[in-house]
């Protein structure tokens, strides 16, 4: 390793610091603005630290948040993979990285050797949401105002950006792949069709779809099952796009997507309620009121289907620093057991549940492929920093689903009548 800096005995190069933090070996090529290096020269993955601001990001927010700040800002560059799909680099880092948090004395020596001036935090990139304590100015966690701001941060990026990344279905939730080589569009159709069949939809039935996004479920249920559907989303841009799509499909007499909070829906008497990808946003302490809301909307014998990301266990956890600041502010996850418990505690009867985590890994793979293939247009639409956030987030999430660090569960429940009649078939009609 070499360095262009004038050194004292206490000084160390950035490459030396990386090597000390990875005593088992650096699995990638690392170079830095001070001229130092680490890791094998022939590695297909090359990280380069461009400047002092990047070093300050790494030192003041160790872990994924600091790495994300430096990468999104362009202070840390990654060669060997496309920024729209950095999956292979993340796979290498997770499999072979021997990073260890050093003892306090060692950490002190590393920071001293790199320079105390780097402990002054630079301003975060503009794509980053406020820290949790600052969000209190928008209301308590999962208040209507704060939820609206969190949804705006993530979903009101650009409808055109989503059209390119998600594809024609405009569906930003886990697809269901009938075969591993099925197209993303066919898999999204299969997901909506599976939900409709689980809910037992028939012509003339009334469906409430909460957290309806761009209206994919709303339009599918109305078009293919003859249902009368009301959808609701907290994203103004999603609602406007969905209403235009409903009109284009000639479904405006039987379907609508409203802009607003699901808690403000006053309609009742629905035969079915679907919630696809909303539970992650509502807060675990709000589960009882969330599922009670669905229960109150259903007629006796009505069904609800909840589709959401979960943890492999039933602990209550936040989504992590990077996801919280850049992707889903205020997001919380727990296991399917906790979800089923809350549903059952209300007197609803759970009839079926399944884990689709492999399907979400394939879905994310498809979205990354779309982002990579349309990178220049996406950058023109939202800027390079935001496009990098999405590549990082989707590739990392794909890896987490593959490694069983997160899961995707569908839970189907029914509201029995006062005599216990669930009006449910003896065997599931959606299988086979």
TrEMBL record:
GO terms for molecular function: methyltransferase activity. It comes from the Bacteria. It holds the Pfam family CMAS. One of its GO terms (biological process) is lipid metabolic process. Coiled coil: none annotated. The keyword Acyltransferase does not apply. The keyword Nucleotide-binding does not apply. Keywords: Lipid metabolism, Methyltransferase, S-adenosyl-L-methionine, Transferase. Belongs to the CFA/CMAS family. PANTHER family: CYCLOPROPANE-FATTY-ACYL-PHOSPHOLIPID SYNTHASE. This is Cyclopropane-fatty-acyl-phospholipid synthase family protein. The lineage of its organism: Bacteria, Bacillati, Actinomycetota, Actinomycetes, Propionibacteriales.
């Amino acid at each position: 390793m070499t360095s262009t800096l004038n050194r004292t005995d206490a000084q160390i190069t950035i490459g030396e610091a990386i090597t000390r933090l990875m005593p088992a070996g650096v699995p990638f090529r690392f170079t830095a603005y001070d001229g130092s290096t680490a890791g094998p020269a022939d590695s297909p993955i090359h990280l380069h630290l461009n400047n002092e601001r990047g070093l300050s990001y790494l030192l003041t927010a160790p872990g994924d948040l600091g790495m994300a700040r430096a990468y999104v800002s362009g202070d840390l560059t990654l060669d060997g993979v496309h920024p729209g799909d950095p999956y292979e680099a993340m796979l290498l880092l997770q499999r072979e990285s021997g990073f260890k948090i050093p003892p306090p004395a060692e950490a002190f020596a590393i920071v001293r050797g790199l320079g105390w001036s780097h402990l002054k935090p630079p301003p975060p990139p503009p794509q980053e949401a406020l820290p949790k304590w600052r969000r209190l100015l928008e209301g308590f966690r999962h208040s209507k105002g704060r939820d609206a701001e969190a949804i705006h941060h993530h979903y009101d990026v650009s409808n055109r950006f989503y059209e390119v990344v998600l594809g024609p279905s405009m569906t930003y939730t886990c697809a269901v792949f009938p075969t591993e080589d099925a197209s993303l569009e066919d898999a999204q159709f299969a997901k909506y069709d599976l939900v409709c069949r689980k809910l037992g939809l028939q012509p003339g039935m009334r469906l409430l779809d909460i957290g309806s996004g761009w209206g994919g479920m709303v339009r599918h249920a109305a078009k293919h099952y003859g249902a009368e559907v009301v959808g609701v989303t907290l994203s103004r841009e999603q609602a406007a796009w969905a209403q235009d799509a409903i009109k284009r499909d000639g479904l405006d007499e039987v379907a609508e997507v409203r802009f607003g909070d699901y808690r403000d829906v006053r309609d009742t008497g629905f035969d079915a309620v679907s919630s696809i990808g909303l539970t992650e946003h509502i807060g675990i302490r709000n589960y009882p009121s969330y599922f009670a809301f669905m229960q109150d909307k259903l007629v006796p014998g009505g069904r609800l289907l909840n589709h959401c990301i979960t943890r492999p266990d039933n602990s209550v956890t936040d989504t992590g620093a990077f996801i919280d600041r850049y992707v889903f502010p205020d997001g919380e996850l727990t296991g399917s057991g906790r979800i089923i418990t809350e549903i059952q505690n209300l007197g609803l009867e759970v009839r079926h549940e399944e884990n689709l985590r492999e399907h979400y890994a394939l879905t994310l793979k498809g979205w990354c492929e779309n982002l990579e293939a349309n990178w220049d247009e996406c950058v023109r639409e939202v800027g390079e920093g935001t496009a990098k956030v999405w590549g990082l987030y989707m590739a990392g999430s794909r890896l987490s689903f593959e490694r069983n660090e997160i899961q995707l569960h569908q839970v189907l429940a029914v509201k029995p009548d006062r005599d216990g009649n669930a009006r449910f078939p003896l065997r599931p009609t959606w299988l086979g």
